[in-house]
Structure formats: C-alpha cells, structure tokens
C-alpha cells in the first residue's frame, strides 16, 4: 500500500479517473449536454454523419490538391520537354480520376444525409444557408466537365490547350471547398437572419455566407487540403523508395509532393493563428474547451498537452506557457480569456475530446513545420538526406500524420460547437430526425465505406503497378 504514495502512480490513477468520468458523460459526446440521457437516434445520426464526413474529407482534400500537382508536373514537361514529367502527370491523372469518382459518391451521400438526418435544421434554416450549397453544385459541375476533357484530352488536344483544360479543375475544387466550408462557418457564427416567434425571417443568404468566420475557416481548410495532398504523395513515394524502388520517377514525384507540403506548412501556422483569434472573438466557449481553460483569467497560459478534469474544473499534467493563450487569442499577454465556468454547463462542449483533438492537430502541425524546415538546411545536407532511410521514414510518416491532423481539426470544429448545430440558435438534438432505423443505416454505411475504401486502394495499387517506360524506371 505504500506504493500508493508514488507520484507517478498517483498521477496515472488520477488520469484514469478523469477518463472514466468522461466515459460516463456519453450524452456530452452525443448531444453536447451533460446530465441528459442520450437518445439512440441522435447518437446514430451523429455517428453516421461523422463516419461519412471522416471518409469524404480525405477524398475532398485530394480533389482540391491533386489537380495542382498535375498542373505543376505537366507544366514542367511543357517547359522542359522532359518526357518523365509527362509520364508523371499522365499516371497521376488516372489516380485522380479514381479519387474524384469516389469523392463524388461520398459527397452526394452527404447531401442526402443532411436532409435525412437533420430535417429540422434544413426546414428552419434552408432559406438562410442554401445558397453556398447551390453554388457548390455549380463548382462541382465545372470541375467534372473539365475533368472529362482533361482525362480524354491526352494526345487529342494541343499540349498547352490540354494544360489549360486542367486549370478549371483546380479552381473548381477550391471553389467547392470554399462554399461548403462557408456553410459550416455559418453554423459556427450564424448571421443573416432574425427569428420572430420561432420562425426565421428576413433571410440574407449573402450575409450568412460571408459571416465573420468564413475567411479564416475556408483558408484554413484549403491550405490543409494542399498540405494533406502534398505529404500523402510524398509519403507514398518515400515508402516506395524504402522498398528499394529508387527511380528518377519516384524521386521527382516525392520531391514535387514535398514542395507543395513544405511551402504551405509554415503558411498554415499563420492561418491557424488567424483562426484562433476568430474563435476567441466569436466562439469563446470553444476556445476555452480547446485549451482546457476552466476559469476566466487575465494572462491565461497556453497549454501543451494535459488532461482536462471536467469534475474538478482543472487541466492536469499540462506544460503551461504563461500568457501564451492570451497572446494567441488577443495579441496581448495580459488579455482576459473567458473560461468554461463563465458559461452554463449545459451549453459547453465535452472538453476532454475537444482539448485532446486540438493538441493532436497542433502536434501534427509542429511535426510538419519541422519537416518543412528541411528546405532551410544547407544544400549538401539535403543531398545526403535523399539517400538516408531515416529521412525517408520521416517523409513516409508525414502523409498519415497529415490526415490525422486533418481529422482532429474537424473534430475540434464540430464537437467544439456542441451542444449546438447552429451556435446559440438550435441544439443538435432538436435538429435530428425522429425516424427509426438510423442505426441500421449506420451499420450498412460502415460496411459500404469499408468496401469502397478497400476497392479504391486495390484499384490505385493496380494503377501504380503498371510498368513504367525504361527512362522512368532507370536508377539515376
């Protein structure tokens, strides 16, 4: 029993107690309201939406970023007439065709789920926020039309005409992402309407779409899409080189992916700071949950790690940087940051999930920024690193980690808004469908997405296994 006085064991037991208490607060995860029994329909609806979003967001990100890599590779071919760049662009276009098709399917499912799972949300606020979804459809049509021209235009169009046919694909992907994320930003910071006797009146779709969170949130997502694409591509070719496939083709492909990811990783730091300031101004309760800040405090610290204890109202085991959160949110180390205790408990998100997800996102971002710093080291070191297995393993890890950071960021965005589907206006539980059988749909969707994911991987592997021309497969 004397061992119970061991500080390490005591800390471990404290952490387990916090996690156990969090597990009992299942309703906070489901409807974001502590102390209220969770409804199975709301749970199933949220899990189904989360599953579909988690699946689709990866393909959506590749749909935004991969056209840029295609254009860069083909541009290098047009400028140098090096056939290896053309081979790279052409093979990537086949992979993009597969990813585009899967992304279109999962995106279409999401549009149906919005009406099926959240009918009250659509009924009440459809006139307010329907515009960006309509414009997203036009952006998708633009992307799809020119994708067809690009795929079938190889050797049929003049070289530069073919390259220009790919530009609308890249622009359409960015526009699609912008419109969808603008709608999500409105859910976080709703405006462009007023409510009379429980009925929405004077809807202004333009004002709703251009809400105070739109700028930071859309840029944050678009840059993240480019980062995920660049590092996933680099990761694949790093693994290929680790398996002994050291080709000029693989080296150029990995390098192009790294250029896209490494250039934008430091940019995302600045965008993330902008996003934090917007959240502090428009969703202070979300910021408090992100940082595990329970008490309102001047000179609030920035926490690295830590486990929030919602019962004791304290975040344990964190490394604290004095005044860091105040500076991050308000550019003033002495600024007052509102804590979770300032808000009714039934209106606060599940702090453990939000805080841990935010920490994961930040940790991944720090790793990617450190990787981007590779471009700043002396050129001789970079040349030596190209043949280092340790370096290749670092690059290989960057792809999956970038996806993890992307998913964690969306958990912060969505769970951090709970218990609201429209911040301050409609609770998630009130928006959900009352129809039975959502759990069966969830089970079927999980099976279908598993099959779709496996099928996509199999097709992509077969495309990658197609033999290269001799000049592309030779070791440089």
Helix and strand topology:
Elements: H1 7-24, H2 26-30, H3 40-80, H4 83-117, H5 119-152, H6 159-188, E1 194-196, E2 199-201, H7 205-209, H8 214-242, H9 248-282, H10 284-291, E3 297-298, E4 302-304, E5 307-309, E6 314-316, E7 319-321, H11 324-330, E8 336-337, H12 351-372, H13 379-385, H14 389-415, E9 420-422, E10 426-427, H15 428-431, H16 438-465, H17 470-473
Antiparallel strand pairs: 1-2, 3-8, 4-7, 5-6, 9-10
Helix pairs in contact: 3-4, 3-6, 3-8, 3-16, 4-5, 4-9, 4-16, 5-6, 6-8, 8-9, 8-14, 9-10, 9-12, 10-12, 12-14
- In round numbers, the mean pLDDT is 84
**Which of globular, elongated, flat, extended, rod-shaped describes the shape?**
globular
Largest sheet properties: 2 strands, antiparallel
Sketch the topology as an H/E string, one letter per element: HHHHHHEEHHHHEEEEEHEHHHEEHHH
Strand order of the largest sheet: 1-2
Count of DSSP strands: 10
Please report the number of helical segments.
17
Distance between the termini: 65 Å
Q: How much helical structure, as a percent, in the residues?
A: over 70%
Estimated share of beta-strand residues: 5-15%
**Which consecutive residue ranges, at least 5 long each, have pLDDT under 50?**
1-38, 471-476
Structural class: mainly alpha
User: What integer value in Å does the Rg equal?
Assistant: 24 Å
